[in-house]
Amino acid sequence: MTNNSPTILALDFDGVICDGLIEYFQVAWRTYCQVWSPANQTPSDDLASRFYRLRPVIETGWEMPVLIKALVAGIDDEKILQEWASIAQQILLEDKLQAKEIATKLDNLRDEWIVTDLDGWLSLHRFYPGVVEKIKATLASKIKLYIVTTKEGRFVQQLLQQQGVTLPKEAIFGKEVKRPKYEILRELIQAAQEKPVSLWFVEDRIKTLQLVKQQTDLENVKLFLADWGYNTQPERNAAENDSRIQLISLSQFAEDFSAWC
């Protein structure tokens, strides 16, 4: 590969490849109802739109029903944007819950939904324009492509297969690997057969990219923040002011790699 293209392309899934906001809300609401058993099991009219706006605060799946709990409890949107980590932990503490048990309930509900209504579940996901074509073109080239995500790998495989993209299991690093993304990137570099390695990583969470930045041995990894993903304007501004992180648009992503930088 030239300096204008990677030898390894690592992509986040949610917020980079796929927009699953509608499904997130639906499965989060179902989980919320199972955990907290509200008297009214129909969400209020504005709940989904507030959830969508606040999606950037979510790091892993268990937080989604907790976010709904916070919204139903009347916690202000701006407060959630500023103090989400402490709010989420406070809710767990007050209700004597463990993140792991909420995550298990959410994953089980998802699995059950997939088994009983796969078409319905798939229909709630939207792939960003041009992304599937870019993935297929990359797979047809000599570039190694990997998905590095906090979503369960089996869900990623289901969604990609629907789009005609078949990735081997070992190319998808999902929540089940239980390792930070920077550690996975390190392993991809170490395992690469083609040297020198040029790894490009596209993510929609600036905190994740900042963690990669802190790893001195990953200083040559090119970092991209997807401006179409689940991030806020202040986060996009921070990327623009960071010499290591490149803000990339969806139209750039769909183009040749030379247009990315």
Structure report:
This protein has helices spanning 21-36, 47-54, 63-72, 77-94, 99-116, 118-122, 131-139, 153-162, 181-191, 206-213, 233-240, 250-254; strands at 8-11, 18-19, 126-127, 144-148, 172-173, 199-203, 222-226, 245-248. It is of the alpha/beta class and 261 residues long. The two termini are 15 Å apart. 34% of the residues are buried. The mean pLDDT is 95.
Write the layout of secondary structure elements.
Blueprint lengths: L7 E4 L6 E2 L1 H16 L10 H8 L8 H10 L4 H18 L4 H18 L1 H5 L3 E2 L3 H9 L4 E5 L4 H10 L9 E2 L7 H11 L7 E5 L2 H8 L8 E5 L6 H8 L4 E4 L1 H5 L7
Parallel strand pairs: 1-4, 1-6, 4-5, 6-7, 7-8
Antiparallel strand pairs: 2-3
Keywords:
single chain; 261 residues; alpha/beta; 6-stranded parallel β-sheet; two-stranded antiparallel ribbon; 48% helix; HAD_sf; HAD-like_sf
